[in-house]
Design brief:
Layout: H1 13-16, H2 19-35, H3 39-56, H4 59-69, H5 79-82, E1 88-92, E2 100-103, H6 104-130, H7 133-142, H8 147-176, H9 185-193, H10 196-216, H11 235-268, H12 272-277
Antiparallel strand pairs: 1-2
Helix pairs in contact: 2-6, 2-11, 3-6, 4-6, 7-8, 8-10
């Protein structure tokens, strides 16, 4: 059976972007999605991520990303049902009065929640699928992070496909011995439970093997690692990383800068009572 790989090289521009530039794009999108709730700022960023998804990857990979990320945002759809502040737009009075109240404020926050959740999931999976874990680890080291942290990210990115590969191998071995996953839902759960013991053994054996390999190669003896692989920045990489960095700064200024300025002016300007007494 062929090894399961989430990353496979394709002739698309997302695969040719410098890993460090892609990391800047990832961090910029995550900062905007985590700090801002204004859907007017999130909407153009969301469409830019969708555009990159459809233009920078093959249709097969696009389907994978959409299928993985779509269930993540289902909980955000119920956000407007929780927020009651604002002007009511739609009210359901059954089975009791005001059972469901959808307000304009709740609808705005619900749209923002869907955009934030879906965008964060997409940028993470796009970066994961279009970047080799080793390249991502070296990009983290270039921005000053410890090699131990970069190797942790690399191992975590390789962990899921490796464990899925082992899981399918164990299932095929059990099928060859007459143990197949059939029957009712309870019987299928019992069949999956039989996979826990060999999977636990495989995980412990893999952790032990990786630790021995790192110790044998002298990992951690020097504060920095050297590499023969270079990642030069192209003109497109500078434009790509600079555009999203500028968009992040402008979004934060629009989202927080004017609010802080207005608060400072409100508390530093004299009140009408002070003016009348003076």
């Amino acid at each position: 059976m062929a090894r399961i790989e989430f990353y496979s090289k394709e002739d698309k521009f997302l695969y040719n972007i410098n890993p460090l530039a892609k990391l800047i794009w990832l961090v910029s999108c995550l900062i905007i999605a985590l700090l801002l709730m204004d859907f007017r700022i999130l909407l153009p960023l969301f469409f830019s991520v969708l555009l990159m998804l459809f233009l920078g990857m093959s249709l097969r990979k696009v389907k994978i990303v959409l299928l993985i990320t779509l269930p993540i945002v289902l909980f955000a759809i119920f956000y407007p049902l929780v927020v009651r502040e604002g002007t009511p737009l739609y009210v359901i009075d059954w089975p009791w009065p005001q059972f469901i109240v959808i307000t304009d404020r709740g609808l705005q926050l619900g749209i923002a929640a869907v955009l934030r959740t879906y965008m964060m999931a997409q940028v993470i999976f796009i970066t994961w699928i279009t970047t080799r874990p080793e390249d991502l680890g070296r990009a983290l080291e270039r921005i000053g992070l410890s090699p131990k942290f970069s190797i942790m990210i690399t191992m975590a990115a390789n962990f899921i496909p490796s464990m899925l590969d082992k899981l399918f191998s164990i299932r095929e071995a059990q099928k060859a011995r007459g143990s197949e996953i059939r029957g009712s839902f309870i019987e299928k759960l019992k069949s999956f439970a039989r996979l826990s013991n060999p999977m636990m053994y495989v995980m412990m054996d893999r952790a032990n093997t990786v630790s021995l390999l790192l110790a044998a190669r002298g990992f951690g003896l020097y504060p920095k690692r050297t590499s023969i692989v270079k990642y030069p920045f192209t003109t497109f990489d500078y434009i790509f990383a600079g555009a999203y960095t500028a968009f992040m700064i402008i979004s934060l200024v629009l989202g927080y800068g004017f609010r802080i300025l207005w608060t400072c002016l409100l508390y530093t300007s004299p009140s009408p009572r002070d003016l009348s007494t003076s």
